[in-house]
């Protein structure tokens, strides 16, 4: 029974972060992504910030709802930001080797910014659940 609940917990809390990382890796492996007409100059950076904000939100959620490593759970905010930024750096390195793609420092900055906002959003959500009855 315990193994079954651990599997359900893993699938519900940890798997979405892993799935999101896989989606990012897959999209980074495509040489030419379809280009949507840009509405404004920094649209690409906002896309990076959104995607890595979502990734960091899911990482924070995965770390917060795991009970095996207490230090990870205690420091989930900083750890989620760090992991998302490191994944963003590795993503840019990966893109450097994909034909037709390039890596940019400002993409990493956008990834880091999104990671911070994603973790703050998760923190805000968990804080609201504690103070507001649902």
SSE diagram, text form:
Layout: H1 2-28, H2 43-64, H3 70-74, H4 76-96, H5 105-131
Helix pairs in contact: 1-2, 1-4, 2-4, 2-5, 4-5
Report on this model:
By secondary structure, the protein is mainly alpha-helical. It has a domain at 46-134. Helices cover 76% and strands 0% of the residues. The chain is built from 5 helices and no strands. The longest helix is centred in the N-terminal third of the chain and has 27 residues, at 2-28. The mean pLDDT is 83.
Index terms:
single chain, 134 residues, mainly alpha
In short, what is this structure?
The chain is mostly helical and 134 residues long. The chain has helices at residues 2-28, 43-64, 70-74, 76-96, 105-131. It has a domain at 46-134.
SS element count, helices: 5
Mean pLDDT, to the nearest integer, reads: 83
Please, what is the oligomeric state?
single chain
Question: What coarse outline follows from CA principal-axis ratios?
Answer: globular
């Amino acid at each position: 029974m315990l193994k079954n609940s651990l599997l359900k917990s893993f699938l519900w809390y940890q798997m979405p972060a892993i799935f999101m990382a896989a989606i990012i890796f897959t999209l980074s492996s495509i040489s030419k992504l379809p280009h949507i007409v840009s509405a404004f100059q920094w649209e690409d950076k906002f896309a990076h910030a959104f995607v890595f904000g979502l990734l960091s939100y899911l990482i924070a959620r995965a770390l917060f709802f795991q009970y095996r490593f207490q230090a990870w759970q205690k420091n989930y905010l900083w750890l989620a930001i760090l992991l998302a930024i490191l994944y963003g750096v590795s993503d840019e390195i990966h893109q450097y080797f994909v034909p037709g793609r390039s890596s940019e420092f400002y993409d990493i900055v956008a990834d880091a910014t999104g990671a911070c906002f994603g973790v703050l959003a998760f923190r805000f959500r968990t804080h609201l659940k504690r103070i507001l009855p649902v």
